[in-house]
Design goal:
Helix content: 25-40%
Strand order of the largest sheet: 2-1-6-7-8
Number of strands: 8
Mean pLDDT: 91
Shape: globular
Number of helices: 7
Distance between the termini: 21 Å
Order of helices and strands: HEHEEEEHHEHEHEH
Strand content: 15-25%
Length: 229
């Protein structure tokens, strides 16, 4: 679903964006098989509001890009929460990247992923994903590269359905993801898109501590159990 009404309006902050985004996902409210996953850091405040509004469980889905040697901005793959690793075979073949180089990069990024998960979850186990309906949330889509990596990794955990949901995004990125997700919800698509942050009045960086506190709040509050339709 793409909504271009009030396309150029700005959200007050990520919390406001999550509240608006939740209205576009109202048909999923109360499902017992619904899980909301936020991409850190900025996606977590948005996801927290979505999960609260829908009565869903909230968790973090950490994704780390595996940058190619000498071209770290080029993704040769990604790793994600749950021990998931996805390789971009086209890049690996085109740049003739040997397995041992991939392992070095993957170990480095795995260490950072583990560090973040320790901080964010604070000892809590990950929410089970297999067989669930997942709403995968970020604070916006520019190129969509991080979300594509997250989707590829998330599919390995065997959810029954995946909905990509963002408050704001470029039309190109939102449309490109339609072939990878079961549904894409971009609440606002600016007429001219240049950066995610321009869709917000307040786009201050989200800290690790804020992510930890929001996840802790969701865990202590508990999600309504809902009912399967």
């Amino acid at each position: 679903m793409f909504n271009e009404n009030a396309a150029d309006a700005r959200f007050l902050n990520r919390q406001h964006a999550g509240q608006v985004l939740a209205t576009h996902l109202a048909s999923y409210a109360g499902r017992g098989d619904l899980v909301v996953l936020g991409l850190p850091r900025g996606g977590i405040p948005v996801a927290h509001e979505v999960a609260r509004s829908l009565g869903a469980r909230l968790d973090v889905f950490v994704v780390r890009k595996l940058g190619a040697p000498q071209q770290p901005e080029l993704a040769m793959g990604a790793i994600a929460s749950g021990g998931i690793r996805v390789l971009n075979d086209d890049v690996v073949r085109a740049y003739r990247i040997p397995p041992e180089v991939i392992e070095v990069v993957a170990r480095r990024e795995a260490a950072e992923l583990a560090r973040r998960e320790r901080i964010y979850r604070n000892g809590r186990p990950a929410v089970p994903i297999e067989g669930t309906v997942v709403v995968l949330v970020d604070d916006g889509l520019a190129t969509g590269s991080t979300m594509r990596a997250a989707l590829a990794a998330l599919r390995r955990l065997k959810p029954s359905r995946v909905i990509v949901a963002v408050p704001v995004g470029s039309k190109e990125a939102c449309e490109d993801l339609r072939g990878l997700a079961d549904e894409v919800v971009c609440a606002r698509i600016p007429t001219v898109f240049s950066a995610v942050g321009l869709g917000y009045e307040d786009f201050n960086q989200t800290t690790d501590e804020e992510v930890r506190m929001l996840l802790q709040d969701a865990g202590s509050t508990g999600a309504t159990s809902g009912k399967r339709p």
